[in-house]
Amino acid sequence: MSTPETERVRRIWEKLAPKYDKLIKFPERWLFAGGRDWVCSQATGNVLEIAVGTGRNFEHYPADVRLTGIDLSESMVGIAKRTAESLGRQADLRVGDAQALDFPPGSFDTVVCTLSLCSVPDDRKAVGEVSRVLRPGGRFLLLEHVASPRCTVRAIQRILDLITVRLEGDHLVREPLVHLREEGFEVERLKRLKWGVVERVAARKPIVARPS
Q1: SS3 assignment, position 32
Q2: How far from the centroid of its chain's Cα atoms is residue 169's Cα?
Q3: pLDDT at 208
Q4: Does the structure show a pLDDT above 70 at 209?
Q5: Can you give the residue ranges of every domain in the chain?
Q6: Once rounded to an integer, what is the mean pLDDT over residues 75-82?
Q7: Residue 91: which H helix or E strand, with range?
Q8: 106-132: per-residue pLDDT in tens?
Q9: Which of 36, 92, 112, 153 could form a disulfide with 49 if both were Cys (CB 3.0 to 4.6 A apart)?
Q10: What pLDDT does residue 84 have?
Q11: CA atoms of 198 and 192, how far apart (whole Å)
């Protein structure tokens, strides 16, 4: 069942969808350059992209992956479908909630998430869902802006966070690695850039389940 905060975020992204590509261009050049390719080029097999947005990752995937994408915003999904068509990319694109993925356990070899956990109301729940739908040994590939380890930078982020969460549902001081480790993911590759604000992660779900 959708929460009031999830519905608020859905409305925000419905409004932002038509202008998202224009708004993200500068941050991608300044903060996230090369990040989409770093993440998507590692994807293999049956791939799920959560919060697929307008499909900005599509051109970076290997040609042989089988791509499924979900997004909370119907308008975003509509744009993503047009992007896929323009690139000749086959993809199953649908409206969906990262906090409650409508797929059986172990459905995917790879899950990709770029610049999106920051806007999921309950990012802890989303990471749990990623773990559930990944097969044992599957990989979670992540590009995100996160809380900087530098005290001065983090202090600025906390101030800005008061504004961005209220206006855009965008959280600036989250730490996804904490949730990944709680779920038992094994971090294979980790890069922190731009004063530690940008994080690139390649993590693997253990083949052997953790004891309960």
Answers
A1: coil
A2: 14
A3: 74
A4: no
A5: 4-204
A6: 98
A7: strand 91-95
A8: 999 999 999 999 999 999 999 999 999
A9: 112
A10: 98
A11: 6
The pLDDT confidence band at residue 211, using thresholds 50, 70 and 90, is low
- pLDDT of residue 89 exceeding 70, the answer is yes
Q: How many CB atoms lie within 10 A of CB 85?
A: 12
Q: Residue with structure tokens 């206006």?
A: 167
Q: Are 147 and 173 in contact (CB under 8 A)?
A: yes
Length of the chain: 212
Q: Minimal CA–CA distance to 85: which of 109, 59, 105?
A: 59
Homologous superfamily of domain range 4-204: Vaccinia Virus protein VP39 (3.40.50.150)
Tell me how far apart the 2 most distant CA atoms of the chain are, in Å: 47
CA-to-CA dists, residue 43 to 22, 24, 40, 119, 209, angstroms:
26, 23, 5, 22, 22
The sign of the dihedral angle between the CA atoms of 161, 164, 169, 175 is: negative
Instruction: Please state the separation of Cα 34 from the chain's center in Å.
Output: 16
pTM: 0.94
Cα dihedral value 59, 174, 93, 80, nearest 10: -50
